[in-house]
Write a structure and sequence with these properties.
Layout: H1 2-31, E1 34-43, H2 52-72, E2 76-85, E3 92-100, H3 120-132, E4 140-147, H4 159-170, E5 175-180, H5 185-191, E6 196-199, H6 204-228
Parallel strand pairs: 1-2, 1-4, 4-5, 5-6
Antiparallel strand pairs: 2-3
Helix pairs in contact: 2-6, 3-4
Length: 246
Amino acid sequence: MLQGLQFHFSCFLLIKLLTLHRQTIKKGKVMEVKNIINLIILDASGSMESIYNQALSGVNETIQTIRMGQKDHPNMKQILTLASFNSGKEYLKVKYSATPIDEVKEITKEDYVACGCTALYDAMGEMISELKRKVTLEDRVLVTVITDGYENASVHWSGPQIKSLVEELRHEGWTFTYIGANQDVEEVAGSMGIRNSMAFEETEEGAKRMIVRDSQSRSRFYEKLHLYGFAKSLVEDEDYFDDDKK
């Protein structure tokens, strides 16, 4: 009888230990912090003057959305790299480089000056390559490209080179989005290997609608990572801007 009691006690103790172990593992997963790297590449060519105020306020609204994403999901550390581009010798202006969102301030008119042409490929190639050297496979990267016109001034990178780079990183879990005006955005994005695109009208109202939709899509992206985890898929979802697929 004594042996029976010892056996039952041993079983009881083993079950308790296993339960505590599972709880510890579960708690560890919940508390584990993952990095979300937000890369924003913003057109600062002269043609952006027509929606300058909306572009400026839109970037600041995006910063607020990223900041809110970290507040809503403390286990996801939000990091921002932000650059604007035009053309010429100093075509690229990097405002933030892999900066924690808590250290990011809203940009001003001094930070964003619209002039020149559109060296889109050079800006994408430079910024994406730089970020590639900094991230790990544990990080999730969201790249957002915003422009109101076609590439017309790059000297270092070509379209095929950008497409090869984008497709390589898509298969490592990076998500790319392309937001454009005055063009066939699906065709242009596709030529660069980008599957998620959104068109907007280059008007005050059109820019405002674009900003709202992008903020909503970004928030859904964060929520999806929170619900399903960073390892849901190595290849990005192709419904980033689709309001009906959540």
